């Protein structure tokens, strides 16, 4: 699990919150599959509750949650998650640090992710092109990975990132090879490492290395 809760608050000249980005790694499946309707699930409830608690708008950024689900499901747990995250957001906002801003910088790279033999037969190709994108402002970096990356990939990128505040997003810019884990994940078996993922065991390393290359290119030169 990645227990990190990140909050980025944008405020006006008087210090009043305009919008807050909150970043968590957890599947939005608290009411799935019992509710057939279109829903914001727990992130929608959490965004509303955080907005009421802090003021302004609240926007959710999904982390690397390919192997993280909510611990309970249903309307009650959704309300509990929303309330808990709003309390966490209030604590984070109270002890937050003002970041030194700079001009926005963006970077991207495209990597080729090798497919498993089953996926090659299904698609008629050996690899899938996938985009990795970064947006940087001062010491803050947002780095987006395609598909459903598992938790270890986000932790690995954050650990080696040249930016002290790095938010690693999944589900960005296409499906990639769907679920992607660290090397050795496929040997464990299970849905995500098996039928849920079309890529080989090397795909996780390729995404991590690609993300770190983009971040290094955008980092201030010493």
The topology string of helices and strands comes to EEHEHEHEEEHEEHH
Q: What percentage of the residues does DSSP assign to strands (E)?
A: 15-25%
Poorly predicted regions: none
Arithmetic mean pLDDT: 93
Helix tally equals 6
Distance between the termini: 34 Å
Shape: globular
Number of domains: 2
Helix and strand composition category: alpha/beta
In angstroms, what is the radius of gyration? 18 Å
Largest sheet features: 4 strands, mixed
List how many beta strands DSSP finds.
9
Strand order of the largest sheet: 4-5-6-8
Helix content: 25-40%
Describe this protein's structure:
It is built from 6 helices and 9 strands; from the N terminus they run ββαβαβαβββαββαα. The chain is an alpha/beta fold and 222 residues long. It folds into 2 domains: 6-94, no CATH class; 105-218, no CATH class. A 4-stranded mixed sheet has the order 4-5-6-8, covered by helices on one side. The longest helix is centred in the middle third of the chain and has 20 residues, at 75-94. The protein is globular, with a radius of gyration of 18 Å.
């Amino acid at each position: 699990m990645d227990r990190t809760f990140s909050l980025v608050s944008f405020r006006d000249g008087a210090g009043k919150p305009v919008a807050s980005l909150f970043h968590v790694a957890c599947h939005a499946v608290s009411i799935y599959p019992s509710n057939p309707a279109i829903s914001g699930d727990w992130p929608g409830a959490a965004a509303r509750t955080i907005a009421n608690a802090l003021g302004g708008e609240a926007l959710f950024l999904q982390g690397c949650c390919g192997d993280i689900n909510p611990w309970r499901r249903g309307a009650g747990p959704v309300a509990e998650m929303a309330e808990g995250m709003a309390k966490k957001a209030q604590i984070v906002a109270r002890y937050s640090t003002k970041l030194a801003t700079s001009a926005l910088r963006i970077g991207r790279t495209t990597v080729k992710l090798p497919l498993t033999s089953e996926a090659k037969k299904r698609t008629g190709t050996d690899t899938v092109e996938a985009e990795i994108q970064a947006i940087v402002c001062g010491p803050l970096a947002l780095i987006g990975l395609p598909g459903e990356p598992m938790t270890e990939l986000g932790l690995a990128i954050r650990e080696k990132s040249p930016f002290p505040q790095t938010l690693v997003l999944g589900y960005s810019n296409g499906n990639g090879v769907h679920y992607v884990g660290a090397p050795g994940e496929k040997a464990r078996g299970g849905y995500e490492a098996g039928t849920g993922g079309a890529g080989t065991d090397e795909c996780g390393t390729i995404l991590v290395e690609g993300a770190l290359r983009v971040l290094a290119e955008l980092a201030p030169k010493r």
